[in-house]
Amino acid sequence: MKLITVVGARPQFIKASVVSMALAHVCDEVIVHTGQHYDRNMSDVFFEELKIPKPAYHLGVGSGTHGKQTGEMLIKIEEVLQKETPDALLVYGDTNSTLAGALAAAKLHIPVLHVEAGLRSFNRRMPEELNRVLTDHISDLLFCPTQTAVQNLKNEGITAGVQNSGDVMLDSVLHFSKLAGENPEKTAIFQKLGIQPKQYRLATLHRAETTDGGLPAVERIFRAFERLPQKVVIPIHPRTRSLAESAIAQCGFRNIQLIDPVGYLEMLLLTSNACQVLTDSGGLQKEAWFLEIPCVTLRSETEWVETLAGNWNVLSALETDEIYDKAVNTKVDPAARSQMPFGDGNASGKIAAALLQMGENVK
Ligand code: UD1
Ligand code: UDP
């Protein structure tokens, strides 16, 4: 069975790393990289460090408005699909690369497999929400990370092909945390940054809702960070870099340490050793939860509602006082972690098993 996997953005490389390992024995996987993320530390570093098979096609689409970026991907993915005639196409998550891959395949009657199906923020102003809803509605096999995601699909009338596989990001965290801890080149990150375990907070910012607020929004967030008793380390996403640099230059913040985006192994080390995570990232909220690090999510809603139990994750509007208050005054309840809503860490194995079954049927 021939499977085309379309990836393009950082979190998709991380998800693909574990799934591709599991798929190696069950199908011929052809990886297509749309080029949505292209800086070395947003793309190549993940392929190298996580040993993801090299993409057979690199479409080089790059940045652009939603229409231009998605449209160019659609044209180029269609060409690949016509040439390769795969039995199925697999996409991850909710980026423009996800939607373009799914749409190109569905129009050619190629079965679409969606990993991380069924997530909803119920905020249609988020580009990701549109990508998820549209992708789910044209997918044939939908691998949900949680029971909530299964229910969300049911509420939209989608039940065929739906499976609660568990969350592939849990597989990634379990698999790569150990490797990260054993790698002296990676553990040197603390010394390199001049930070001590549990003496810093870790933050990331890249959502459109954050950056659309421009400099004032970033300043409001940074004013809260400035007041926190520990330094805030921020591997800064390229989307937010210039706003973050301007905020620091204009306001002279001294408690914020901006660094370049790091590879996944260093990121796992930074997360597991932080005393708190503050983020608008979907993936990082969950990694904080997996690694039992309290998190403040800098958004007004989350798709990962399970993480909110016992205040392990709390939401905050992008207002200085609220962020500060939530960051210093939230107490977590360890008893709230007795449930494991994200599966058993073998989501990739379940996806591979479903593919094997599908392969039997297309023989
Ligand atoms: C995208 C996804 C988002 C996901 C995020 C993961 C969409 C609509 N958004 O957001 O769901 O959470 O990836 O990180 O698909 N840039 C660079 N170098 C790069 C990549 C981006 O400089 O390698 C800059 C460009 O100025 C670009 C901007 O970042 O315009 C935004 O990149 P884009 O891929 O459009 O969106 P993300 O914010 O990365
Ligand atoms: N990440 C990383 N290096 C960084 C910042 C994030 O490896 O400098 C990882 C992070 O650990 C998580 C994923 O990137 O696995 C999250 O990606 P991002 O926040 O860009 O997107 P989202 O998850 O919000 O879609």
From TrEMBL:
<dbReference type="InterPro" id="IPR029767">
    <property type="entry name" value="WecB-like"/>
</dbReference>
<comment type="similarity">
    <text>Belongs to the UDP-N-acetylglucosamine 2-epimerase family.</text>
</comment>
<dbReference type="GO" id="GO:0008761">
    <property type="term" value="F:UDP-N-acetylglucosamine 2-epimerase activity"/>
</dbReference>
<dbReference type="InterPro" id="IPR003331">
    <property type="entry name" value="UDP_GlcNAc_Epimerase_2_dom"/>
</dbReference>
<feature type="domain" description="UDP-N-acetylglucosamine 2-epimerase">
    <location>
        <begin position="27"/>
        <end position="355"/>
    </location>
</feature>
<protein>
    <submittedName>
        <fullName>UDP-2,3-diacetamido-2,3-dideoxy-D-glucuronate 2-epimerase</fullName>
        <ecNumber>5.1.3.23</ecNumber>
        <ecNumber>5.1.3.14</ecNumber>
    </submittedName>
</protein>
<keyword id="KW-0413">Isomerase</keyword>
<dbReference type="Pfam" id="PF02350">
    <property type="entry name" value="Epimerase_2"/>
</dbReference>
